[in-house]
């Protein structure tokens, strides 16, 4: 069971067709096992979000095979890609992306609309998720009445409520001050302890250091600093492979 | 390097082996109820804008309902006049041969019997105004003065005419087939005429003199529902009139008054000329009651078309308004679109959501417009003391037209929304 990695890239690469074509993510192999906390750093424009979009089934790679929970996503029909995305992946963004006119509860419940969770179940599960992120007392608040940290917690609750196997976070603390960022990061640590698989993009080195494993992207090339290889962590860029 | 790959391949095969529905990788869905509640939420989150957007549809549908309602109301006034009485009346005129000869003399002797044999005829009879010879007049006694200043009319009529006229008898009876057959000198008069003749009761067996001939008055009519001029005449059986003063002629042509059962009038009018004279049906002109639909159409056509055009213009403006607002909303809500895609929405789910929003907006405009249009009809009708009439089909169709308008207007923006790349949308 746990032997099946959550993320497996086999020579996955993405070139935006352009013109001119932009090789935003160079072909790479990567394995992320269940329960790992992977942080990804890199300069602006290096391809971090591109990587996240591929891993999150938002963009389809132009090369290679991406297996999510062992399911080869290559050539899946759109309905199944969307289904996988809704059920197995939770997203957390720098800018929260909460619907401003919906309460915290409704925002969280929205994550169960497209995944076939019965309406009756939704409110209870959304409430549970909000309690989990420490917002049990702000359930009916509108996002505009919440602090930045609270908003990001709502977003995390929304990402968790569909019980995904993977949480993808793009600069989750980018819009937060140090104190609120710390509380959000503590929440992520908690989730990691509970066995959630996390991939967190950040350019804050202190945030990156919290991960059990840190990858770097530079000019679309994904690399892992040497010496931190774990048995389950397998990473090689396609360029290394051809060079070897 | 290979073990995970093999595992994955196994998983892939397992997925295929299970058929179209992989275990947790079930397809994404968007239940109709969720679609509806998302659309309603989308409209309600900007109530003022939604209201303004729907205004065009409100006006268009309102005008549509008001015009159709007012048309129905006015034509129902006409329909009111056009009641069961007129709908069951057929008169037959004697127009003579095409060369102008034989006018007024073409009714056969048994005309009433021929018509009464037709299906749907209740009563039929020939009548004509009697032209008295010079010096003859109607008097109450053999030597008295003439009644009133003006000449009193004498009408010759078959018994069917009196019955077709549906009189209310004040006293006595109508003459019948016996009086007609035997040419009995009897008369039926209206109550006003009776008073002028000095007749107050039939107990005394009163008589009127037409020329020198006495006619026993056997009935006094209070009122008639058809052919009101019968009340101003002394009505005598056609046979005795023909004996005394001759058959109807060119100057005083005979006509027929026929009453029919409801719905039979048009057919009776069709068949009457042939029944009267199979050899010369062209000598008779049967006048059926006017077709109520034709009546309504001539009344309804001219102004209404203008107003309906106006309603269509309003609707088009409404549609453009909805299209514009929805397009703005799509651009404004790009982030939301991206987010929904990450939550498992497909492009078509986004399309359906925006379509549902614009359709709901159109339907809402249609409903409010229907209400306002109906109120207008009621207000106008009350002011004119008419009965307001709005056809149920109008009330049902109006919100639907609003909905369709919204759907059409939302088409392009909704399509645009589905084309927004989620990655693009999330970068905002
Ligand atoms: N749709 C696209 N078409 C062409 N080029 C693109 C497209 N999307 C992104 N890129 C390019 O791909 C590269 C990687 O972009 P990406 O958004 O992944 O960077 P990033 O590492 O997330 O940067 P940041 O830290 O600023 O968010 C950039 O050079 C960007 O300009
Ligand atoms: Mg980025």
UniProtKB/TrEMBL annotation, chain A:
Statement: the UniProt record of this protein carries the keyword rRNA processing: no
Database matches in InterPro entries: AAA+_ATPase, ABC_transporter-like_ATP-bd, ABC_transporter-like_CS, ABC_transpr_LolD-like, MacB-like_ATP-bd, P-loop_NTPase
Chain segments carrying region Disordered: 220-244
UniProt xrefs under SMART domains: AAA (SM00382)
Name of the protein described by the UniProt record: ABC transporter ATP-binding protein
Recorded GO MF terms: ATP binding; ATP hydrolysis activity; transmembrane transporter activity
The UniProt record lists the keyword GTP-binding: no
Natural source organism: Streptomyces globisporus
PANTHER family: ABC TRANSPORTER ABCH.1, IMPORT ATP-BINDING PROTEIN
ABC transporter domain sequence ranges: 7-244
PROSITE patterns recorded: ABC_TRANSPORTER_1, ABC_TRANSPORTER_2
Highest taxon in the source lineage: Bacteria
Entry keyword set: ATP-binding, Nucleotide-binding, Transport
Pfam families to which the protein is assigned, alphabetical: ABC_tran
Any single Gene Ontology cellular-component annotation: membrane protein complex
TrEMBL record, chain B:
Localization terms from the record: Cell membrane
Record region (Disordered): 1-28
PANTHER family given in the database record: ABC TRANSPORTER PERMEASE YTRF, MEMBRANE COMPONENT OF TRANSPORTER-RELATED
Listed GO CC annotations: plasma membrane
Membrane topology field: Multi-pass membrane protein
Chief location bin: membrane
Keyword Transcription regulation: no
Chain segments annotated as transmembrane: 51-72, 306-331, 358-383, 389-409
GO molecular function, one term: transmembrane transporter activity
Listed name of the protein: ABC transporter permease
Comp. bias (Basic residues): 7-19
Domain ABC3 transporter permease C-terminal: 309-422
Domain MacB-like periplasmic core, first and last residues per copy: 50-245
Organism: Streptomyces globisporus
Top-rank taxon, per record: Bacteria
Similarity annotation: Belongs to the ABC-4 integral membrane protein family.
Pfam family, one: FtsX
């Amino acid at each position: 069971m746990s032997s099946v990695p959550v993320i497996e890239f086999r020579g996955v690469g993405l070139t935006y067709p352009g013109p001119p074509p932009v090789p935003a993510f160079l072909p790479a192999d990567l394995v992320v096992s269940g329960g790992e906390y992977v942080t990804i750093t890199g300069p602006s424009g290096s391809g971090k979000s591109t990587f996240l979009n591929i891993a999150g089934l938002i963009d389809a790679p132009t090369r290679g095979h991406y297996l999510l929970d062992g399911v080869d996503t290559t050539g899946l029909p759109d309905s199944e890609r969307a289904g996988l995305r809704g059920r197995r992946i939770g997203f957390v963004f720098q800018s929260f992306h909460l619907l401003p006119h919906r309460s915290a509860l409704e925002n969280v419940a929205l994550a169960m609309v497209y995944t076939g969770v019965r309406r009756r179940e939704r409110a209870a599960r959304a409430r549970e998720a909000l309690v989990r992120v420490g917002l049990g007392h702000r359930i009916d608040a509108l996002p505009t009445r919440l602090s930045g940290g609270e908003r990001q917690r709502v977003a995390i609750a929304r990402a968790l409520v569909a019980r995904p196997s993977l949480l993808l976070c793009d600069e989750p603390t980018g819009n937060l001050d140090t104190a609120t960022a710390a509380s959000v990061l503590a929440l992520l640590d908690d989730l990691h302890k509970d066995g959630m698989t996390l991939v967190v993009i950040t350019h804050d080195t202190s945030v990156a250091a919290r991960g059990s494993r840190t990858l770097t992207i530079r000019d679309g090339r994904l690399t892992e600093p040497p010496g931190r290889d774990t048995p389950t962590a397998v990473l090689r860029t396609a360029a290394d492979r051809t060079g070897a | 390097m290979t073990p995970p790959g093999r595992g994955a391949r196994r998983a892939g095969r397992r997925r295929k082996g299970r058929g179209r529905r992989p275990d947790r990788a079930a397809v994404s869905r968007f239940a109709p109820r969720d679609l509806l509640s998302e659309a309603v939420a989308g409209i309600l989150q900007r109530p003022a804008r939604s209201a303004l957007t729907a205004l065009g549809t409100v006006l268009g549908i309102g005008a549509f309902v008001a015009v159709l309602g007012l048309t129905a109301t006015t034509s129902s006034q006409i329909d009111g006049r056009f009641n069961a009485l007129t709908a069951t009346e057929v008169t037959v005129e004697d127009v003579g041969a095409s060369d102008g000869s034989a006018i007024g003399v073409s009714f056969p002797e048994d005309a009433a019997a021929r018509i009464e044999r037709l299906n749907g005829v209740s009563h039929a009879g020939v009548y004509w105004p009697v032209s008295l010879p010079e010096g003859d007049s109607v008097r109450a006694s053999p030597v008295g003065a003439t009644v009133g200043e003006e000449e009193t009319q004498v009408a010759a009529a078959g018994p069917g005419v009196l019955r077709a006229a549906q009189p209310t008898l004040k006293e006595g009876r109508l003459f019948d087939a016996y009086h007609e057959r035997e040419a009995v000198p009897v008369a039926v008069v209206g109550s006003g005429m009776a008073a002028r003749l000095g007749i107050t009761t039939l107990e005394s067996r009163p008589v009127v003199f037409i020329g020198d001939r006495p006619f026993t008055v056997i009935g006094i009519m209070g009122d008639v529902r058809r052919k009101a001029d019968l009340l101003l005449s002394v009505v005598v059986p056609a046979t005795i009139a023909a004996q005394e003063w001759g058959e109807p002629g060119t100057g005083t042509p005979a006509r027929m008054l026929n009453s029919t059962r409801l719905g039979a009038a048009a057919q009776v009018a069709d068949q009457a000329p042939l029944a009267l004279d199979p050899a010369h049906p062209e000598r008779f002109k049967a006048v059926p009651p006017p077709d109520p639909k034709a009546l309504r159409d001539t009344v309804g056509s001219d102004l209404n078309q203008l107003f309906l055009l106006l309603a269509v213009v309003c609707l088009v403006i409404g549609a453009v308004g909805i299209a514009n607002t929805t397009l703005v909303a799509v651009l404004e809500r790009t982030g939301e679109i991206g987010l929904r895609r990450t939550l498992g929405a497909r492009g078509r789910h986004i399309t359906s959501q925006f379509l549902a929003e614009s359709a709901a907006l159109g339907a809402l405009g249609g409903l409010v417009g229907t209400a306002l249009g109906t109120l207008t009809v009621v207000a106008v009708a009350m002011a004119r003391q008419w009965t307001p009439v709005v056809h149920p089909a109008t009330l049902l169709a109006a919100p639907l037209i609003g909905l369709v308008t919204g759907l059409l207007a939302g088409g392009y923006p909704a399509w645009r929304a589905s084309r927004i790349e989620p990655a693009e949308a999330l970068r905002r």
